[in-house]
Structures are given as structure tokens and as C-alpha cells.
Amino acid sequence: MSELSGNTGRLEEIIDREMDRHPHSQPLLEAFRPLFLVRSRLLEELQLGKEEPFKIDEIRFQGGVPVIEQHPLLQENDPWDDLVRAITPALQEGFPDLRGDLENFEKALSEGKFVLSEYFLQNRDGQENLLSAWAETLSIAAPRIGFVLNSAARVVLEKRARDIAEQIQGLKWEKGYCPICGSFPSLAVIGEKIGERWLHCSNCGHLWRFSRVICPYCEHEEQEGMDFFLIEDKPQEAAFSCDSCQRYLVTLYRVSDLNDRNLDVSALGLTHLDVIMQGKNLLPMAVTDWNVF
Ligand SMILES: [Zn+2]
Ligand SMILES: [Zn+2]
């Protein structure tokens, strides 16, 4: 057996535990396992590009302007080629369907047919356009290329988010989107004791506290309009939904073992809630690699 570093070994255990808890999610968890493991390793080992020191404008931030709108979180000098080369085999292992396409993508990359960093420096619309252009040149479906590139971006975002989290610790943030990268949450967690709600960002991995009576998506504040869907016999598994914006948020209810969890893994174990909520014609607050059916 290969030697696993502490965090990676722990992550393996967390994934195994989630598979025991939710056998229906086993295929999904197995598919994502290599990606999650390589991400965890890269988070520890990878050196990001050097960046200028920056100071967050606290007034703008507390008015709801996330860090990403004040300072670029993805940079030209980040090690994009190395990241994509490290992530590609993990995706090929978990998603055998992608094997050939990703091989071709990597070949084009090593032949210098395009410059990866161009993608990461664009805004969302620019990224979509570039992705379509590359997809056409390489005859690979755009979402397949997007899967690799966004997996690479996640590593860089999460690594920078960890540093930034310290800088914003004492500042007020009252928005339902991520204070660091501006994305909506993919999962909420309500603690056992104090009953606070925490929102998890699947884009950068950040976790922040948010009111329990306000909809994170549309800020609608009326308890009557908010439904809490609970699964019988599974008191920890819930989904919050909002009548006003017709969105839902899968929620881990009354959890006491947050330190023994990885919230991306938890979200993969709870996709039965996504199926139920989407069956009610509700949309997720954040689209992830696994919650659109
Ligand atoms: Zn985020
Ligand atoms: Zn809402």
C-alpha cells in the first residue's frame, strides 16, 4: 500500500464512512474519490504564484463586495499546467468515459495549442466563450474541458481562501453568497448546540455564518415562506427551500461531528435530497459537478 500523508488518509476514511452511511451514493463517491484525494494532496504541496500583498477595503467588504471583486484570486503566474496535469489522471480514473477526451486535451496542451492561464483570467462570460472556442478546435464537449479547468481553479481558490479567511475573520458579512469568491452555497450546516447556520461554498471551500431565518439566495425574510424538508428517520438530513425564489439548499441538521467531516463529501452523500427537491421544481442555489440531473 502506498503511504498516505495524514490529511489524505483521513479523507479516505471520511469517504468510506460516507459510503457506509449512504450506500446509494457509493458510485458517485467512488467516482469523485480520486479527484478529492488529489485535490487534498495539491492543497498541501502546491506553491501558488507570488502575489502582491493586498489589503481588503473593509467598508466595501462589509457592504457586501466579496474579496474576489477587490483582488484577483486566480493569477496568470499560478501553476496551471502542473495542476491540470496532476488532476487529469484522477478524473480519468473516476470517470472512465472522459479518458480519451482528456488525453487529447492534455496532448493539445503539451503541444502548446493554447495558453491555460487565459481561461482563468476571464470573467464568467469570457470563460464560457473561450471554453466553446477550445471545445470546437479540439472536438471535445465544452463541459468536459470545463470540468478539468474548474477542478484546477478550485485548488487555487481554496488555497488562497484559507489565507484570506484569517484576514476577514473579524469583519461583518451578512450575505448569502461567499465572502471570498462570491458564489452561492452548495450546503448548509446547522450545529447541534447553538443552532447557528453555516454556509459552505463549493467553489472555494469557505464556510461562513449566516442567519437562519433569511433566504441566502434572495434575502427574503419571512419564516412562513420558508420550508424545511426533513427525511423521516434521518434527523440530520434536511433541505431548506424558499417560496420567493424557488431555490433550495441541502442542509445538515444538528451535526456535532463537523470536524470529522468534509463538506464536499457530505454533499455527495446527500444527493437524494437534490433529487427530491428538484422533483418539486426547485433549483439548487449553486450548480455543482454533481447536483444537476
Ligand atoms: Zn467561495
Ligand atoms: Zn429565496
TrEMBL record:
Pfam families: FdhE_central. One of its GO terms (cellular component) is cytosol. InterPro entries: FdhE-like_sf, FdhE_central, Formate_DH_accessory. GO terms for molecular function: ferric iron binding. Residues 177-212 form the FdhE central domain. One of its GO terms (biological process) is protein maturation. CDD domains: FdhE (cd16341). This is FdhE protein. The lineage of its organism: Bacteria, Pseudomonadati, Thermodesulfobacteriota, Syntrophia, Syntrophales.
